[in-house]
Amino acid sequence: MRPLFSVLLLIAVAAILVFRITLRYSSIELKNEYPFAGKAEKPVLNETLLKYACIDIGEPRLKKEVEELLEGNFRGHNRHRSFLSSGKYRIDVSPRTARGVSVQLRSPEFYRLWQSFRRNLQDWFRNRKLPKDVMMDLVSAVKVPIDAHSGLVRSQKRYKSCAVVGNSGILLKSEYGELIDSHEAVIRLNNARNRGFEHRVGSKTTLSFVNSNILHLCARREGCFCHPYGVNVALVMYICQPVHFLDYMVCNSSHKVPLVVTDPRFDILCARIVKYYSLKRFVEGTGKSFQEWAPAHDGANFHYSSGLQAVMLALGVCEKVSIFGFGKSASAKHHYHTNQRGELKLHDYDAEYDIYHDLVERPQVIPFISEKFKFPPVSIYQ
Ligand SMILES: *[C@@H]1O[C@H](CO)[C@@H](O)[C@H](O)[C@H]1NC(C)=O
Ligand SMILES: *[C@@H]1O[C@H](CO)[C@@H](O)[C@H](O)[C@H]1NC(C)=O
């Protein structure tokens, strides 16, 4: 057994070395990706902040979490451990191994589910790296499967126009329903109810964009029912906790419409852009050093909002983008459809509004986006 062990050890060391070199190269490549390096608008982007925006403070924790899940160790995920036990699948958690609690798999059905869970999670985690031209892949990743489901011809054409409908209470001040429905595609967020609000928010839905917490809630329902806009409306979802791939596996098998998980490279792109804007706002607004940003913004948990990623998605799949229901005002509720008071602290909505304004007025200053990508015109309705 000894020689075999040495060989394995050697392979492991080699793999780590290759990984390190790859990492180093990706950070060098990054420099060339700043879209306006060398052009007139260069001063707009600050190198220090760009670099810092690429550091994901939560990454080590995420890595540990993913590794534990891949081993079947749900110890740190007690909230989820009975997740599948109410349906026909069951995860039995028992303290059998010395390392902690591990999952015992009983039914062959669950075993298959478990295998694909691991495969999906592994692929997802492996692909969380430097985004390159990922904006140009969005039509293939999102629009093509939706068209195919509706029996339309496969094409790389974008939607002529899209409305992204946020959930801000400011929507209650206007009657944009008809205007929203006049767009070729309407994107709604986190399954916000539109029934009863049609004259304000419209009634048409082409795509429902959600975070995986929403799907996790749906997964508790019979047949993973997640269709407030009708069973033919496709879902696009980003993963906010890796354990939610279990929900994805269960729901994907029962959904007839496409249930698309966002490309992790697209997630990273969104995260970096928002962090850059948040850093910039923090440094300029407080006069403090960028190093103080993390404690002030709960750096390890900091995340973009679903709205931001839905807008980014629309930029990739539409020729023209209109944004409704984004923004706040002292006299408006936080959500049009709920009585939730405050905002979640892990988002920086002000930084995201800065991004939307740049999208309208000077999209070329938005960092990390490939030069080849052409921004569509964007309008904000408030
Ligand atoms: C970039 O930001 C850093 C950190 O806030 C600051 O120290 C530096 O002066 C800025 N550089 C430029 C060129 O504005
Ligand atoms: C999700 O469901 C679709 C349609 O049934 C299928 O083509 C796809 O392979 C599934 N994805 C995964 C990861 O199982």
Automatic annotation (TrEMBL):
Keyword Transmembrane annotated: yes
Localization of this protein: Golgi apparatus membrane
Pfam families named among the record's database cross-references: Glyco_transf_29
Major location (coarse): Golgi
GO cellular component terms given for this protein: Golgi membrane
Keywords from the UniProt entry: Glycoprotein, Glycosyltransferase, Golgi apparatus, Membrane, Signal-anchor, Transferase, Transmembrane, Transmembrane helix
GO molecular function: galactosyltransferase activity; sialyltransferase activity
Membrane disposition: Single-pass type II membrane protein
Transmembrane segments: none
Family annotation (InterPro entries): Glyco_trans_29 (IPR001675), GT29-like_sf (IPR038578)
Gene3D superfamilies: Glycosyl transferase family 29
Family: Belongs to the glycosyltransferase 29 family.
Name used for this protein in its record: Sialyltransferase-like protein
Organism whose genome encodes this protein: Solanum lycopersicum (Tomato)
Organism lineage string: Eukaryota, Viridiplantae, Streptophyta, Embryophyta, Tracheophyta
